[in-house]
Every structure is written in structure tokens, then in C-alpha cells.
Amino acid sequence: MSSPRGRPVETRGGWLGGGGRAARLQVRSRVALIITLAVSVAVILVSASAYVVFRHDLLDAVDGTLTSQAETLNSARTHGGLHAALDLLFSPPSLLSDQPAEQVVEAAGLVVTPSRGSAQLPVSARVRAVAAGRANGYFTSTTVGSVPVRELVTGFGKGLALELVQPERNTELERLAVSLALAAGAGVILALLLGTGIAGLVLRPVRRLTAAAENLATTRDFGTRIPVEGRDELSRLAVSLNTVLAALQSSQLAQRQLIADASHELRTPMTSLRTNVDILASHIEIDAEARTQVLEDVVDQLDGLGRLVGDLIELARQEGTPEQSRNTEVVAFQDVVTDVLADMRRDPHVNIKDSLAPVLVRGVRSDLARVVANLVGNAAKWSPQGTEIEVRLSVDKATAVLSVSDKGPGIAAADLPYIFDRFYRGSTERKVAGSGLGLAIVRRIVEVHGGEVGVVSSTSTKGSCFEVRLPLANP
């Protein structure tokens, strides 16, 4: 992997990432921790729920025992009187046994029958309210002599309340709590191990993509392709990266080809220009007429070099600027064509006939003008002097159609597939001045504007007809 300035960035293994910045958790580590956290929360919730449910069931069992004893005593009181019920009270009670400890309390708080053999049960205002009949019976958890107990307070005839307590089975709860804690801890450790393994498996395709990107950053070989496996999101990412690599490779090849073609095209005029300048700078005596001819050649060669350099700059601008970054606007295409034709009609040797329908397209006005100027200029270059060049602008469904027809010698069939290539010049074309970039610039501009350009017809008797098709704008 490379830094923004091109220096390789070292990566650090283990849980922490590396590089020149502060260490951060790697993605794999973060995924593992997230999985561990999720599983741990689930294990803890299940354990806590199990503890709560078990404790609830345990208290229900104790409450059932207390309720059953209270019903027995109340039944004895109803049939045999209070004394018969008091005789049934357990003696001696013990808070350490499984049987309830009991106590009968008056509404005033006086203990009628204390709990023998144990500490006195607490008598609260709520207990007195139950004895007085102002409140219903209830269950509660409390302590008696530091022993956790479950207490039932219920009415026991007129003006009396019965308190029954039984020790809670905390030993079982403690064993359950320890077991659940050990199980939760083991679950967390297992979740961490599984999370680490799952994160490694899930991120394996990401590591392949990272390795491929690092190799590409090092080798700069845009011909490299990333293996695509499956049809998931990472596979689609690999396909997208391969598409980007293909575009970069194509751009790189086009750049190298442009440099090679430009070097080749510049070599001949530069050599000729150097020769003529050497003649003028030499001490060889030449007559005035020859000197004038050499000077005219130098001027023509400089003009040709200027046109070639200008076309190269324009082509580089067109190819280096993506469509979405251009400041486009809705353009009245017929006005663009009219302005270009007005400039070209200043040459008395150019005879242009036009038929322009109003058309709106979206694009860059100067670029569209360049398309019209190049096509009409190309037609004027090949048309015999005085012959008519026909320019038509019409609408075909949702498409603007610009056609430029000339009466020239036509294009050889062997040259038709290549006339829009950079620096391509047919055998007859080499006899005419030009850079060989005009039609290449036209094609690039039209493609950037979402259209297409081609030769509709070309014969030696009727000349050639070029056609540009652009999508209409939605005003």
C-alpha cells in the first residue's frame, strides 16, 4: 500500500493496524469484537433470564407452602375456634427448617402468639393494617435474625393477623448463579474465538482485494485483473475495480500512442524546418527568388506546426476532461451552426448552402462549434473550388441530426474504418495540408455529448456526407 505521496505504507499484523498514524484496530479485529459483543450480550441476557425465571419459580414454591399452611390454620380456626388453630401452630419452629415459623398479631401490634424458638417476627404498620382489616394480605421478602425469609401476612379472624415465614432457598439460587456465571464466561470466550475465525473467513476476499491493490500500487501494471468469485457485494466490487483498471489501461495505452504519434508527426516538419533555417543561416549565396521561396516554406511549416500543436492541445483537453465535469447548458444548435457558417463564408471560395431547423441540445457551446467548423472545413478542403457544400440541421424523433455534404472525390473504402483515428491520413490525404486530428476531435466531442458521428455515404462521383447525431435537450 502507498501513501498519498507515493511512499509505501507499512501494515502491522495482529489486532492493531499500522502506518504512520496512531494504531487502530484492524477491520478483522473490529468485526471479531462486534461478533463477540453481540454473542456475549445474548449469553448474558439468556443467563439473567434463566436466573430470574428460576428464582420466580422458587419463590412460587415457597409462597405455595406458606399459602397452604395459612389455609390449614384458617380452616382450624373456622371450625374449632382460635384456640384450636393456635394448637396447630408449629412448635418449636425453626428458621433453618423447611417448615414455616408463625406469629399472630393484634391490630394494636401486640403479639398474641410469638414465634417460639426464633427471633420475633417484625410487626410493621402494614401488618397492623391487615389485622385491622384495612389492607389485604401480602407476600414479602425480608430478613429475620440475618436470615433471608419469605413472609406471608394474612388476616386471621377479627382483629388478628397471621404472619408466616419460611427461609428462602438461597443455596440453590447461589449454585445456579455460579453455574450461569461460569457458562456466560465460557460463552464469551467461545464467542471471541468464533468471532475471530468468522471475521477471518468473511474478510478473506477483502484481503485478496487489498493485496491486489497493493501490488497494483507497487507495479503500476494496469493490465492486472482481480479474480472474481461468486456474486456477492465483494464480487461486484472486484468487477467494478476491474472495469476501472481496464479504463486506466486503455487511457495509459492511448496516452502512449498519442505521444508516439505526435512525436512521429512532429519529426518530419521539424526536420524540414531545420533544413530551411540552416539554408538561410548558411553563408551559401542564393538568389532572391530562392530565398523568398525558402522563407515562404518556413512560414508555411510554422503555420502547420501551430495547427498541429493546437489540435494536439484540443484533443488532450477533450480526452482529459470527463463528461460529467463539463459545464453544460441548453444550446440552440442552429445558432451555433449559423455563427460558424458566417465565419466560413468570409472566404469567397467557399460556397455553402444551409437548411437549419431550430434544435435544442445540451452541451458546451464552444465544443459544438468546433464540431461544425471541423466538418465544414474538411468538406471545403476536399470540394473543388466553387462547388456547393450542403449543411442541414433537422430533428429525427429525439435526436438532432447535423449533416455536411461535399462534392469532393470521396473516401476510399479502405480508409473509411480509420478516418476518425488520430493522425490517420489516407493516401490521397497526404497531399493536402492538415494534422490528421480534426475528425478525431470531432468524434471525441460528439461521444462526450452522448452522440455519434459517421459517414453516411461516400462515392467518387457524389462526394461524401458526414452525419452527427446528438440527443435533444429537455428545456
In brief:
This protein is an alpha+beta fold and 475 residues long. The protein folds into three domains: 1-87 and 169-202, no CATH class; 89-168, Beta-Lactamase, CATH 3.30.450; 327-471, Histidine kinase-like ATPase, C-terminal domain (Heat Shock Protein 90, 2-Layer Sandwich).
> Would you list the SSEs in sequence order as H and E?
HEEHEEEHHHHEHEEHEEHEE
Describe the strand arrangement of the main beta sheet, using strand numbers: 2-1-5-4-3
* Count of β-strands: 12
If you consult CATH, what is the topology of the largest domain? Heat Shock Protein 90
Number of domains: 3
Beta-strand portion reads 15-25%
Uncertain runs are 1-15, 18-23, 90-97
Major sheet size, sense and barrel closure: 5 strands, antiparallel
- C-alpha geometry: rod-shaped
Level-2 CATH architecture of the largest domain: 2-Layer Sandwich
Instruction: Give the class from helix and strand content and strand pairing.
Output: alpha+beta
Structure explained in plain terms:
This protein has 475 residues and is α+β, with helices and mostly antiparallel strands. It folds into 3 domains: 121 residues, no CATH class; 80 residues, Beta-Lactamase (2-Layer Sandwich), CATH 3.30.450; 145 residues, Heat Shock Protein 90. Helix content is 51%, strand content 17%. The chain is built from 9 helices and 12 strands.
